[in-house]
Amino acid sequence: MLRVATYNVRGLRDDRAALVRVIRAMRPDVLCLQEVPRFSGWRAKRRRLARDTGMTVAAGGRVGGVAVFAGPGVRVLHGRGARLRWFPGLEWRAVALAVVEKDGVRYAVCSAHLDLLPGARLRHATQIVPMLQRTARMFGARAVLAGDVNEQPGEPTWRYLADRFTDCFGCHAASSGAALADRREGGTFTATDPARRIDAIFAEAGLAVLTCGGAQAAAEDLRRASDHLPVVADIGPGHPVRSRPRIASGSES
Asked: Which CATH number is correct for 2-236, 3.30.70.120, 3.40.1550.10, 1.10.8.420, 3.60.10.10?
């Protein structure tokens, strides 16, 4: 089993101590981050966050503000940052790609932060999917894509991704024949009023999602750590699907 988490940390501009506690509470094997520091001292700031959460930096460059951290229970085989197509007037986006191995299974994990502009968002998604799939094939790995999609289920880019991968949070509803009719279900933004599900983890077909949902961390820490809530999924081959607690709830500790 691989525990994957994704978290937009808003440049570490919020309560850093709360953020560290939330990440430690999640106990991820792999953590996909968005809006990590990307200006002065960005390498040192990322390394310090990784150290404080018991992890190491596995992948990610300066451009795009995305990174992948790895926990002590996984072996990092490959890591890099890759720039996406630049659109004049928009932020230059990128992805962080890491290949890790746990319990003899290899996973190619990609952290992405898609654009606010719908056209650029979809264009970048069509770049990311084949890039991730090529990396997975090169290493004999299974593909996992996680990040801030900047749109909700049912919208064009989300549909493009969900047609090619399993939406880990949504799959437990599909497996039981239910539907996520409430658009607030699993909300990740904002942390104080999570009315929109715009952060997600997508897994390659053939991987089983054991659990997916929110961090079991103190509710106050979740509100103070960032303007987004994290998503956590336990992924592995050959297991049934069930859901974690709702993302919006949080638990006191």
From this structure: 3.60.10.10
Which is it for strands 56-59 and 30-34: parallel, antiparallel or unpaired?
A: unpaired
Query: CB–CB of 57/48 below 8 Å?
Result: no
Are 174 and 166 contacting, i.e. CB atoms less than 8 angstroms apart? no
Per the DSSP assignment, residues forming a β-bridge with 110 are 97, 145
Q: Is the pLDDT of residue 181 over 90?
A: no
Please give the Cα distance from 47 to 52 (Å, whole number).
Answer: 9
CB 207 within 8 A of CB 144: yes
The burial of 88, by beta-carbon neighbours within 10 Å (0-12 exposed, 13-18 middle, 19 or more buried), is given as exposed
Q: Which helix (H) or strand (E) holds 199?
A: strand 199-203
Which amino acid is it at 6?
A: T
Q: Supply φ then ψ for residue 108, to 5 degrees.
A: -100, 115
For the sheet with 75-83, list strands across it.
Answer: 75-83, 94-102, 105-113, 142-148, 199-203, 166-167
% of the chain at pLDDT higher than 70: 89
- In tens, the pLDDT along 148-172 reads 999 999 999 999 999 999 999 987 4
What pLDDT was estimated at residue 184? 61
> What residues pair up with 50 in beta bridges, in sequence order?
none
Smallest CA-to-CA distance from 109 within 62, 74, 149, 85 is with: 74
Residue located via tokens 């750590």: 225
